[in-house]
Amino acid sequence: MLFKKDKQAASTGSEKSLQEKMIEKEEAAATKERMAEELIQGKISLFKNPLAVATALVAVVLTLLHIFYAYNGVIEAWSLRFAHLTLILLMCFLMKPTGRASVKQKPTIGTVWDLVAIAATLVVAVYIFSDIAGFQNRAGMLNKMDVIMGAIFIVLVLEAARRTVGKVMVILCLFFLAHTAFSHYFPGFLNGPPSSLKSIVNWIFASTEGIFSTPVGVMASYIFLFVLFGSLMIHTGAGELFIDFALVATGKMQGGPAKAAVVSSAIMGTVSGSAAGNVVTTGTFTIPLMKKVGFPPAFAGAVEACASSGGQIMPPVMAATAFIIAETMGVPYIKVVVAAIIPAAMYYWSIFKMVDIESYMQDLKPLKQEDLPDLKAEFKEKGHLIIPLAVLIIVIFMGMSAGKSVAIAIALIFIVSSLRKSTRMSITEIICAFEEAAKSAVPITAACAAAGIIIGSLVTSGLNIRLTSIITNLAGGSVPILLIFTMIAAIILGMGMPTAGVYITLSALVIPALVNAGINLYASHFFPFFFGVFSSITPPVCLAAFAAAGIAGTDPMKTGFESFKLGLIALAMPFFFVVNPALLAQASLPICIKEAFFAFVAVNCLGYAIKGWWGKKLPAWERLLLAALVLLLLTPSTIAEIAATVVYFILFFKHKKDKAVLKAAA
Asked: What residues does 617 pair with on adjacent strands?
């Protein structure tokens, strides 16, 4: 229950209050049982549709495969990756049918193509698994049937990417495949010896240099388990607890509901790491509440879109891409998490500050006490659900591997949730959680597999060896031009593919050039990662903002531009990582603490500069001055940072004095 019920009978005695509470609990239990029954009946009715049944069945098999691997770890790497991707392809062709919104709708002519794709996937799977040892022994010396099956599988991956990732990724894949096969027809630096179909299939399909390279490997090894962890947590009711906590923590502040959206989305981001998923999960509650207290609809949607997008950089779970970054860099995941702490804190403080300024501009009041949830009762009922997340955070920071950490956390979810009837998951709810996790994994895995085609094509053609010098030469040896090129590429790619796809593609094409240019290793990898993440709030195609606009009932583009303004710090930070790696914890602890302090002062300056309000409307010169202070505060020059901080506090006390004078005059 998100809001307190009216306690009119509170004064009639503790016995009556206890009786009312017992009735409320019985009503809640009855409601839950009724909802579960409706859910079960809904699932049973789906048996009239064999494809819907098949979708649920494949999802369960996929989940059980990963649970088995998590607790046994005895599956050989290529075999696990192939099994994972095969099941993902089946899920894709079932859940994204041609010409229909879902498998529940009546079949169309496109269903024939769906069935062909499903059959082809099964044929390849049977062929490989019937003699998997023999196939692996033939790697490098594939026979004719191996080549045919591999080529079919590559086509199936491209089709899955088309359905779930978008045409941009498919076009890139086709370009690099065409280059690999016909490179002798390409001009200039792209010219080279052509590769045969056998060679292409060998590198892209039969090795771990293409489709089954690091991205799909990480997805199969433990990213899926983190997706499952988030799905299970939400099904236990932990999401409601997080939202209630955020409301109580911020509800009595100026602009409380918007700040609650920021806090709840940050917490939920540690579980899901999905921008659109966060918008749907928390936005359906926070956006109407923001509108209710007076925030403009576009601003309300923008707050939720920005807060939800930040979930992908929020430690300790972050997005699937963070795990891929760790594997690509060859560093422990915990180091990537630590590197993200200051940027994540800066980003969420920036949104929090912008909301604070907007609420004072609009003279919005805090929530009333009766509108706040009874957090004490919620914690009594669901507080134990925090244990799995807390343990996950602790063991990750202790240095335990990501796979083992999340395996322990998943086991704890089942144990802890069973302690209370209200949080105990039924078999139906568990299956639903499995299915949602599998569906969430489809676009991420498809993007990873498609990006693997690009990587494999580069390896096959040998272009990967020459690419770093080629890109550096195209940039004229200029680091700023190279960074701007990377930014534009990341934003454009982010319009048509998930963050994982953006990062993997650029890790093959651009990141080696950034490292070669002398840029810090972490900054080189975080630079495209951040632009890939926040392309979801960057017009003209900003999916998180569009999703929030639908809930807010306002213009998508207007919400998109509001999101862009709110999240501007996220688009500026990557450049500051390059000149000041201490912001990514790439320095001693005292220096990192010092830079974090100056960074938070910079965020305050940016908020006032963008909104043009500091207790009153700011003149243009002061906004420009504040913008200049931001640049000085985020450089590694201590003298410049101290000077800018002094100027900021002079302005701070000036505005504080002006506010006191206005208050006295009123």
From this structure: 613
| Calpha distance 196→199 (Å, rounded) | 5
Q: What SS3 state is found at 58? A: helix
pTM: 0.79
110 vs 48, 99, 133, 153, 250, CA distance in Å?
20, 6, 36, 20, 50
Question: In terms of Cα–Cα distance, which of 457, 448, 498 is closest to 84?
Answer: 448
Cβ burial of 8 (10 Å; 0-12, 13-18, 19+) is exposed
Q: Backbone dihedral region of 294: left (phi > 0), alpha (psi from -120 to 50 degrees) or beta?
A: left
* Residues ≥6 apart with Cβ < 8 Å to 664: none
Q: What ranges do the domains of the chain cover?
A: 47-210, 589-666
Local mean pLDDT, 10-residue blocks, the chain (666 residues):
38 40 46 46 55 88 92 86 96 84 62 91 96 89 94 97 88 93 88 92 92 90 88 86 85 82 77 68 81 87 89 79 87 91 91 87 79 82 90 86 87 93 89 90 90 90 79 81 88 76 84 90 92 84 85 89 88 89 94 93 92 89 94 90 95 87 70
- Asked if residues 297 and 553 have their Cβ atoms less than 8 Å apart, the reply is yes
